[in-house]
Design goal:
Length: about 325
Amino acid sequence: MLSRRSIRIKAMQTVYSKQVNEMLTLEGAQKNLQRSISNAYAMYLYIFLLMTKVAAYVKEDNFKRSKKLLKTDAIAPINPIISEHPILEAISNDPHFQLYIKDAKLKPRIDSNVVLKCYQAFIKHKDYTNYCEIKSPRTDKQQYKILLSLLRKVMIQNEVFIAHLEDNFLNWDDDCAIVITTVANDLKTYNSQKKPLVLQNYKSWQERRDFARNLLDNAFKYENEYIALIEPQLINWELDRVNNIDVILLKMALCELLHFPTIPVKVTINEYIEIAKEYSTIKSKDFINGILDALLKKLKDEGRIQKLGRGLVES
C-alpha cells in the first residue's frame, strides 16, 4: 500500500502542476491525482504479482530439467524452494488480491520474456544460492531478505524489467522510486504470524484516496489563509523569492496542522521536512523546519491546533 508520505508527494506534485498550468481546474487536478495514485497502486501490486510468476517459473523450470525436456546442456536441477515462499504463497492464494488483479487487468500485462529474464538472473545470484542452503525453518528476516534481493538486485537492475514498466504504466518514471521503496518497506515488515502488508492494506486503500482528496481540496480552499500565516515569518524575504516547492510544502503542512485533527503534529512536520530533503534544495529542510516551528508556536498560542484521537499523540 502506498504510504501517506507517497500520497503527500503526489499531492505536492499535483499542486505544482496546477500552479504552472492555469487551465487546470481543481476538479481536473483531483482527477489527475486520483489517477496517479491508482496507477502507482497498480504498479505496486503488479510487482508482487511478477514476483509470484518468477517464483512459479523456478518450479516449472526445475520440473523440465528433471525430465530432461530442455534442449540445453544446462539441465542441472534448480532448487525450487522459492516457489514455496510464504509471502508469495499468501499473495497467490489470497482471493482479494486476485480479484483486484483481475479488475485492474494486470495479468494480461505479464510478459513471459520479462519473467524469464528475471528468473535467469535470480537463480544465478549468490543470494539465492545462499538462501537455498539455509536449513528450514527459515526466519522471517531470511524470508523477506531473499525477496528484497529479487527486487533490488535482480528486477530493478534488469533493463528488460524497467522497459516493461515504462511500457505498461503511465508516469512510471515518477512513480517507480516511490513504488519500489514501498514494496521494499512492506517486505521488511514481514511477520509470519500476520498477513503480508500487501494483503493487510486493502481496507486502507479508500482511506488513502480520501486523504489525498481532502489534502488537495483544503490546500486550495484555504490557500490565502496559509499565505497570510507564512508571509510574516519570511524575515527579509518576499514570498515570490522563496523556492516554489518550499512554499507548497509549507502550505500543505499548515493544511494538516489546521484541518487534519487525527494526524499528530510531529508526524506532519517530520514528513514535510523529509519530503523537502528529497524534492527541494539543500537548505530547504532547515528553512521549512524553522518556519514551521515558528508557525506552530503561533498557532498553539492562539489555540488553533485542535487534535483528536491519535492526533493527540506527540502533539
